[in-house]
Amino acid sequence: MSIFSWQSHQELSVLNQFSATSKINQYKRSGGGCGGANSSGYNIDLFSQKVGPRPAEEIFWYTYITVGTPPQQFQLLFDTGAQHIIIPSQNCTTCGNATLFNWSVSSTFSDQPSIDTLIGFGNGALANCTVITDAVRLGGRTVLAQEFMLCYTYSEHFHELAGDGIFGLSPSATSAWYPTGNEYTTFYWGLISQGQLSSPEWGLALVKCGNHARDGILTIGGTDISLYHPNTLKAVPLSWPLSEVTQWWVLDISGVCINGVFPVPNTTNSVTLVDTGSYNVVAPDYETAKALFALISPLIKRIDSERGVWGAPCTLLDAVAKDVVFHFGSGSQVFDAVLEKKYFNMGPTPGKPGWCSAIIADPGSDYKMREPIAQRRAWIHGNKILKPYYTVWNGVSRTVSFAKLKT
Questions:
Q1: How confident is the model over 330-340, as pLDDT tens digits?
Q2: Distance CA 193, CA 337 (A)
Q3: CA separation (Å) from 279 to 2, 42, 270, 361?
Q4: Which helix (H) or strand (E) is 287 found in, with range?
Q5: Is the Cβ–Cβ distance between 399 and 250 less than 8 Å?
Q6: ∠ CA 235-282-241 to the nearest 5 degrees?
Q7: How far is it, in rounded angstroms, from Cα 135 to Cα 142?
Q8: Three-state SS for 316?
Q9: Where in this chain does the record put each Peptidase A1 domain (predicted)?
Q10: Which pLDDT does position 25 carry in this prediction?
């Protein structure tokens, strides 16, 4: 899961435990009925994992990559809220059960550019890493000399990590390493620049199909029209230059609608990070969350001020839940994204018997999330907002598009 501070340009990520046993599965224009038959790119399986004890706990999606020569396989959290690839090194003694990269046996490994960097995570955890270079493969596509973070220390919050790291996918062709500012080409854009993909766009369906083991499909270098209705595709422009500055997929929000009331106070002229590496929705501040929940039910209270958790007695939360409609975009280019009420109840709240948590939270305490250019209110929308849709992401046209999934 990735959570980001809108007051910092540094990546803040929370890695939670996720696990599976499977090999990499990629195919193009194969299969049928569940994707692949009409793919203009390369389809890659995504797998989901429930985290934690609560019955409706957060769900994350991850995929498999290989690194080095001969290839070593890693399962990584698929994260649109991150720019970098992060995996643990063979000399990491605090990386829990994660698979460690044995760089000493890779014939394509280079210790350059050898930049030491410290990555901060949303819960205060840290990872110490060195930027190195090696071959990275995803879905049969390879960048032979890809820079990424090889970490030799995960702080205590990662001791129980069952997965290995992060696969970041940002809209920018280049990123920079902290603290030197050295620029490099990100993995996806490396594939494009080398002519391995015919299109800069990629498609995403976070939906299970029949009896297939996979829980979602990522299509790189195109889309898969067997998964969505093309005539319903609606493009929403990225908020620019904000997306360029943050290197995140940031959309404008022109308002929020609940129970026919539009706009909810404090929700116009705001922005959001669309983040597959998070599960919930985080409002910009306490005041915005309060105004939103007031239109749903007075029974919903802020039950954990430090973490910004809102909830109600478990017997009531499902009964009062409402669909929440977020108007992504502005002017004539708006898409009404629905956070469906079936996702509203996240289950029992730890330490508060009889109470359940709502999927919408605030940043906690008196913290206010603001974007760094114009200081507009800033949201985070996790993967639940994407579940009902097929989405198409394009860093060249600077858009995220939404379409109706085929069922």
A1: 999 999 999 99
A2: 33
A3: 9, 26, 20, 11
A4: helix 286-294
A5: no
A6: 45
A7: 7
A8: helix
A9: 61-403
A10: 45
Residues 202 and 321 in one domain: no
**Residue ranges making up the domain that contains 145:** 26-220
For residue 187, the surrounding DSSP H or E stretch is: helix 187-193
pLDDT at 13 > cutoff 60? no
- Cβ(89)–Cβ(103) below 8 Å: yes
80 φ, ψ (degrees, to nearest 5): -80, -5
- Give the residue among 110, 111, 112, 24 at the shortest CA–CA distance from 74: 24
**Structure letter (DSSP) for residue 349:** P
For the chain, state the CA radius of gyration.
20
User: What proportion of the chain, given as a percentage, has pLDDT over 70?
Assistant: 85
Helix (H, G, I), strand (E, B) or coil at 257: strand
Q: Which of 350, 348, 349, 335 is nearest to 381 (CA)?
A: 335
Q: In what order do the strands lie in the sheet with 250-257?
A: 333-339, 324-330, 250-257, 270-274, 378-381, 281-282, 360-361
Give bridge partners of residue 67 from the DSSP assignment: 72, 136
What are the CA-CA distances from residue 362 to residues 33, 258, 338 (Å)?
40, 17, 19
Q: What does pLDDT average to over the chain?
A: 88
Distance CA 298, CA 290 (A): 10
Beta strand spans in 190-282 (E): 202-205, 216-220, 234-237, 250-257, 270-274, 281-282
Instruction: Sort strands 59-67 and 126-138 into parallel, antiparallel or unpaired.
Output: antiparallel
The amino acid that residue 206 corresponds to is L
Can you name the residues that pair with 361 across neighbouring β-strands?
282
Residue 372 lies in a domain: yes
User: Does residue 316 sit within a domain?
Assistant: yes
**Both tokens of residue 45?**
């399986």
Tokens 């106070």 correspond to 265
- Residue corresponding to tokens 């030197």: 180
Whether 391 contacts 337, CB under 8 Å = no
Q: Are strands 216-220 and 42-50 parallel, antiparallel or unpaired?
A: antiparallel
Flag whether 20 is in a domain.
no
Q: 60 pLDDT exceeds 90?
A: no
**Is residue 407 exposed (0-12), middle (13-18) or buried (19+ Cβ within 10 Å)?**
exposed
Q: Of 190, 220, 250, which residue is a domain's last?
A: 220
CA 270 vs. chain centroid, Å, equals 19
